Amino acid sequence: MKKLCLVPIALLWLTTLAVAEDFDGKSPMMCAPQRGHDCLPTAKSCKPLKPEAGRDVNLYIDVANMQVKTPYRTTDLPIQSISNNEKSLILQGTSLQYVWAATIHRTTGRMTIAIADREGAYVIFGQCKLGSPPAAPAT
Fold first, then answer.
1. Phi, psi values for residue 22, rounded to 5°
2. DSSP labels for 89-130?
3. pTM as predicted
4. CATH topology of domain 21-130
5. Of 73, 125, 63, nearest to 97 (Cα)?
6. How many whole angstroms from its chain centre is CA 4?
7. What element of type H or E holds 38?
8. How far is residue 117's CA from residue 30's CA, in Å, rounded to a whole number?
9. Which residues are 112's β-sheet partners?
10. Are strands 29-39 and 47-48 parallel, antiparallel or unpaired?
11. Where are the domains of the chain?
12. Residue 101 and which of 1, 19, 66, 124 are 20 to 30 A apart at CA?
């Protein structure tokens, strides 16, 4: 009888494992910003970022190809450092005038990214899901 009670518990545990996505960098990710802040050293507080109407503001992260596509650059941001721990996928990179770092929670996909240059910094909080960027339109 005791063994029979363990079967539903084991099935529930396996179902939970199957539902939880592992954001470990093996699959491309689409990350939707939810909140962002523009921080300047001359200001007493950071200002909220306001999305532009009609613009795709999602970030597309492809660890396998070592690149991040953003809506605000024509070229990809290179990923130069990757690390995985029990809780987070951590990405870092530089690009001419910028330095950036991102952390993505391995089971929930919650993202925090900071982008800094000599003028200030952006801090963006968002949610990632597994998936590739939309295909480029045919020309």
1. -105, 110
2. EEEEEEETTEEEEEEEETTT-EEEEEEE-SS-EEEEEEEEEE
3. 0.76
4. Lipocalin (2.40.128)
5. 73
6. 42
7. strand 29-39
8. 24
9. 103, 125
10. antiparallel
11. 21-130
12. 19
Name the DSSP letter for residue 138: P
Dihedral sign for Cα 74, 80, 84, 85, please.
Answer: negative
Torsion of CA 123, 88, 63, 98, to 10 degrees: 30
Q: For residue 3, what are the CA distances in angstroms to 10, 11, 95, 135?
A: 11, 13, 58, 50
Cα distances (angstroms) measured from residue 31 to each of 6, 48, 103, 130? 38, 18, 12, 9
| 12, 56, 58, 80, 133 from 52: Cα distances, Å | 43, 9, 12, 29, 19
